[in-house]
Amino acid sequence: IQRKDLVSWNTMISGYAQHGAGEKALELFDAMKNDGMKPDWITFVAVFLAWNHAGFVDLGVQYFDAMIRDYRIEARPEHYACMVDLLGRRGRLSEATDLIKSMPFKPHPAIFGTLLGACRIHKNLDLAEFAAKNLLALDPNSATGYVQLANIYAAQNRWEHVARIRRSMKDNNVVKAPGYSWIEIQSAVHEFRSSDRLHPELVSIHKKLNELEEKMKMAGYIPDLEFALHDVEEELKEQLLLWHSEKLAIAFGLLKVPLGVPIRVFKNLRVCGDCHNAIKYISAIEGREIIVRDTTRFHHFQGWVLLLQ
Hints:
By secondary structure, the protein is of the alpha+beta class. It is built from 14 helices and 5 strands. It has helices at residues 6-18, 22-34, 41-54, 57-69, 77-89, 93-101, 109-122, 125-138, 143-155, 159-171, 202-218, 234-242, 245-256, 273-286, and strands spanning 180-185, 188-193, 263-267, 289-293, 298-302. Strands 2-1-3-4-5 form a 5-stranded mixed sheet. Helix 1 runs antiparallel to helix 2 (22-34), helix 5 packs parallel to helix 7 and helix 11 (202-218) packs across helix 13. The radius of gyration is 21 Å and the shape is globular. The relative contact order is 0.08.
């Protein structure tokens, strides 16, 4: 593009940020400024996403202040959500909570949902309960509030609290959207749910996963049982993790997608931490490029190197 307008700059910066290429996105932001183009509020949403994926928390905070002070751009809910995510992912939950309390307008449910997700990662039950309470006050029918809080209790083996949350969901007629993954093979879309029992090629898929599990463990993979959110024995938890929907879809892709062609899987929820780690090993063992698109971003795996954190 010989004459790059604001839309083209924003699109490229946002595209790199969504694919986790934070440093490249920030290089483009600098090039944009050097080209004399003034950023707008949309630019900064993309830039904050880039800081998030690059892990540069302090620089993100500096740019948030600079956006308001130097560029005279009023912070919107989207900016605050990005900053809460940026701080929360790095465990700076108190700062994220203070930022929410300082907002000049009423927080929308997604901001408390973002804080709640960060509390789950860092196992902060007190702030998780604060976030869930506010989320459900704003959106009583939010399955996210119930499910995330139940997951935090489950990770701490507080099953009586998990049962209480599930009863509350039932009493309030709140239904969790089922998680599933899908992959397209020769123009046909194949869907998988966790512990899927319907796909006609499950026998071959399970055989492939069992072979992979053995090789993964030999390579150093340890199943993260925190993501098996059921009160069952450890052996069954490992099996439940192995049958997560994205793993089933990837195993099917390994059986059907020709060598040299990337395996592309989509998921309607976020990829769990155990699957994220396991796919690194699968990619290395099989020598395959795997791309997983969840609700947040694209995750690229190629060989042992995870290209995009």
